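Fold it.
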Amino acid sequence: MEELKREVQEKFGIEVKGMDDAWKLVEWLEERGWVVYIITARGRKQVDAWHSNYGTLFAQFGETPNFSSILEGILRVTLLAKKLEEEGVV
């Protein structure tokens, strides 16, 4: 998780200490036209994102984006979306 936090700080200039900081990333995605899906239940922590130009990051490939925590999911989804926008690939 610490490596993810460092990568987010490098790419977004946001030091992630908790969910308040991670929510800034959700807002960044929203501002760029991404729809963010967060599903949480006992034993289920899913985060995915959809954009009209790219489709979904996971669901379109039949994957279930289940993470160890919602925080991890938000960090990974945001980094993947940024990479897709910059490079056209995930």
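Helices lie at 2-12, 19-31, 70-87.
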